[in-house]
Design goal:
The chain is mainly α. It has one domain (7-150). Helix content is 68%, strand content 0%.
Length: 157
């Protein structure tokens, strides 16, 4: 095997860490996207409540399908700049809609249940997505990373 294609120990460590991060984030976002297909009515209600827009079932199914396709691209690590960044923008949209809840992370409802936990989790996921995008060039164990090492044309980057 040609040395130019061989990964160093550090490349393997970086690649493994990013593989774990990439798969975890893709799975996290996939679950939300899949629920748009499974329970589209819930997302119609969320859009009506949070965004004050009416969505048809077709629009919810289309959004869910597109998001699932993006998650699959992220999971295998293809079209990395586009797919990872799109996932980041999708999640940023969610975070931006709930930003005021970050200021009261310990709020409880009348039964003592913490009501602002998910937005705090969203911040951690946002940080992980930003890290994934910033570390694309170290994502050696993705299909895009493999193609980049073995072919100099970078349309799949």
């Amino acid at each position: 095997m040609d040395d130019q294609f061989r990964l160093t120990k550090n490349d393997w460590l970086d690649g493994t860490a990013l593989l774990i991060l990439r798969l975890g984030l893709a799975w996290f976002m996939f679950l939300w996207a899949a629920h748009k297909i499974i329970t589209p009515g819930q997302y119609q209600q969320l859009a009506r409540h949070f965004d004050e827009v009416e969505l048809s079932l077709w629009q919810v199914y289309s959004a869910g399908g597109l998001q699932i396709a993006i998650c699959l691209c992220v999971a295998i690590g293809i079209f990395r700049y586009a797919s990872y960044s799109t996932l980041l923008v999708m999640h940023f949209f969610t975070v931006a809609r709930r930003w005021e809840r970050f200021f009261d992370p310990f709020a409880l409802n009348d039964r003592g249940f913490p009501i602002n936990r998910n937005p705090v989790i969203d911040l951690a996921v946002l940080g992980a997505l930003i890290a994934l995008v910033l570390l694309i060039r170290r994502d050696h164990l993705s299909l895009g990373g493999w193609l980049n090492r073995h072919h100099r044309t970078a349309w799949w980057h």
